[in-house]
Amino acid sequence: MKVLYVVTSAGFGGAPLHVLQLMRYMRSLGHSVGLVSAPEPRLVREAEKLGVEVFPNPYFVRRFHLINDLRAFIPVYRAIKKFKPDIIHAHSSKAGIIARFWSAVLNVKPIIFTAHGWVFTEGRKFWIRWLLAQIERIAAITTTKIICVSEHDRELAIKFKVASPEKLIVIHNGVDISLFQNIVKSQPRNNKPVITFVGRLAPPKDLFFLIDVAERINNAVFWIVGDGELREKVKRYISKKGLIDRVVLFWERCDIPEILSQTDIFVLPSRWEGLPLAIIEAMMAGLPVVASNVGGISELIEDGVNGFLIPPRDAVRFTKALQILIEDETLRKKMGEAGREKAMKNFTLDKMLSKTMEVYCELLKLKEPVENVKGS
Asked: How far is the C-alpha of 320 from the C-alpha of 88, rounded, in Å?
């Protein structure tokens, strides 16, 4: 089959990483793959290595920009006309709207949309959420299938009447087990536990809140790993708080398993989320997680079992949860083992890939492939 992936990219991770996983799998099975995305260097480089036909779309940016958003329609149109896909699979809201527009106009079906966390999720004013939901509702009319990465997102789509329940399916994100099988746990540096955040440095992640929490904790070191639009502001805020010795800011890294092997506690203080790959990676690495109770995070973290779920922006409870884990190494190990067991059972890459392929085959009325999953 010929599959065209369309994704808005704002740094490598999340939806772009998810798309790369799918492209590797599809190419390993011998299928033709095309990609329309912003010219994100790592995604494009990896796609070209796989023999994927890449159609750069420099106008695919996350922030609303009327002129660029209108310009973004043209590269998607050209890609569809040239690549002639059997199936289009769009990821992220802007790419999803544009791809589904052209699918309707050009009558290219089936088209799938994966919602990596809805734009109308919690964290915005209700009238804005309602308006954004109506846009998604219109786009869903022409969509053959909508994949939600969490049960929370499926329920949210049903609540806002985005699509009928039959059109919505849940396929959880997954992580490659092999990346975490040979991790050797490092000893804490300076006898202080390491608390790590991995993700995009952007408003939804609430990094300034995390730094405020770090200011309250003297017996641990914080690592912030990632890049994004808030990088310089985060750097200045760390300096302003006088936390340069206790909060270390890394660039985006390609060795996340190695970073996590040196970590004792993983933290994600987001204001809204879909189903974060970063938490699944932390679980695979055997780490306890302290995270905001938003989006699909409660499907990953069971409060008191493999981590702690905290209401967003509750600094007192966030600090308390971290202190409990800092002071109790036995509890850290117990929760980490529980998280790893859960991730190995429910959130593996091969499960995500095989379930997605089942959707492709169902929509194209093909028999399911007999090959083993190779998309690691």
From this structure: 46
- Could you give the CA distance from residue 288 to residue 308 in angstroms, rounded to a whole number? 8
% of residues, the chain, pLDDT over 90: 77
* Cα–Cα distance, 360 to 144 (Å, whole number): 11
pLDDT, average across residues 113-130: 87
Amino acid of residue 126: F
| 174-216 residue pLDDT tens | 999 999 887 766 665 567 999 999 998 989 899 999 999 999 9
Dump strand ranges (E) for 116-256: 145-148, 168-170, 194-198, 221-225, 247-250
DSSP track, 223-242: EEE--STTHHHHHHHHHHTT
Q: What is the DSSP letter of 10?
A: S
Given CATH 3.40.50.460, say whether it is the number of domain 177-346: no
For the domain made up of 2-174+349-364, give the CATH fold.
Rossmann fold (3.40.50)
Q: To which residue do tokens 């890459």 refer?
A: 349
Q: Can you give the residue ranges of every domain in the chain?
A: 2-174+349-364, 177-346
Q: Phi, psi (5° rounding) for residue 55?
A: -120, 95
Sheet hosting strand 145-148, strand order edge to edge: 53-56, 32-37, 2-7, 87-91, 111-115, 145-148, 168-170
210-268: pLDDT as tens digits: 999 999 999 999 999 998 889 999 999 999 999 999 999 998 887 899 999 999 999 99
